[in-house]
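Q: Entry one of two.
A:
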Amino acid sequence: MLGLILLGSVMLPSWALQRLDEKGQVRVARALSWVISGWVIFWTLTRIALGDFDPRTDLPLDICNMMALTLPFFAHTPRRAVHEVLYFWILAGTIQAVLTPHLYDGFPAFTFFKYWFVHGGLVIYAVYATRALGFYPPPYALFRAFLAIQVYALVILGCNLVLGANYVYLLGKPPTASPLDYLGPWPWYLLAIEPLALAMFGLVYLPVAVARRKTTLR
């Protein structure tokens, strides 16, 4: 799956830049957003239909599912300011879910496909929108994205307290192995993750900084 995500991240924007005009490139972004969002909607409706839906675990409130669900609204008329936030949230956050998946079912389980279409699709979308649509975030966008995620975490914390849930792992670590295991017990890992998140935002900005520098030098 990692290989497919990497392949899609390289090939899709390259193909769009070579073969499509600007309108075609935007249409690809829209189509990709609907595929990703469709999996979240389909998975949620399926859980409800099967009687397995639990609002404490199955609402699309974690960052990846929420971004996937709302992505078509952002992709319909792509805006640079919105993409700047999505870029950092996806490449700094979703990649963690790709590298350390919270997934119990393997291929060809339904949840396996949902998980990888959503998380892998988000990574491909972020790279595609950056390269094909030319939405290269400026340096200050890093801090805007960091501030936005603080606000989002506070909203989700309120939802967790009401539902008795643990979305975004604000009230406990994931049951599977993750980098949070090295950051101490709750609630200290929440404090430890703040500078690490900012550092991750800086790390994923490096390719953009290089690309912007090359463009400037030209």
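Q: Entry two of two.
A:
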Amino acid sequence: MKLVLLGTGRMGREVEAIALERGHTIAARLSGRDNPGGSGLVPEAIGDARMAIDFSVGAAVPANVRRAAALGMSVVVGTTGWEEHRAEVERAVREAGTGLLHAPNFSLGMLLFMRVVEEAARLANRLPEFDLHLAEAHHRHKVDHPGGTARRIAELLVDRLDRKEGWSTELPPGAAHPPERLQVAVTRAGEIPGIHTVGIDGPDDRIELRHEARSRRGFASGAVRAAEWLEGRPGVHTLDDLLDTLLD
């Protein structure tokens, strides 16, 4: 498979290494400087490549995907911070008949973790004496906080817990945290690849579910496998669709 890499930072370099290991070819590498507003996605640059992997920046994703779709390219997006444009981006893909697979985290281990968390929340919903909370930690370079993965986990927990009406990273000054809000704690420090912890706290004991990324390689590997899966599959997909195929 011939791939176009959108974003040439640390994740882009990891994706390239994994793609080459798995026998793929890199048709083009476009940094933000090479591709302002998606303008670098032109036939002369991409040749006959029909798959792109985007680990650029959130502000660049909508234009990247729209331009790729116009060129008949499918896109795997691992970048976060563009969710407010999701509807228009997905519409462009469907109208073009291309494919899009987006996820805030391409680690297959994280997908398994989220399914474990979902089942734990379903069970805890029957035990109101247990309170749940979420903590995430990432490297200091990560712009969004909380990150896309933490937001997805928080939304999942709120959806499964009748006693939670929403989530928040804020603590009200001089007052206790309202029990109907899921507390989300955020840390940005050093070079932490990513740690997500769900705490289930009861009056007499505590359960902790934790996913810790050892490196960025797991994210890159998942993104390349997602591109392999997306080839020939038009429409909008999530990594859950890939995992369902792997676990079938």
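A: Comment on entry two: Residues 108-124 form the longest helix (17 residues). Residues 27 and 49 are 6 Å apart (CA to CA).
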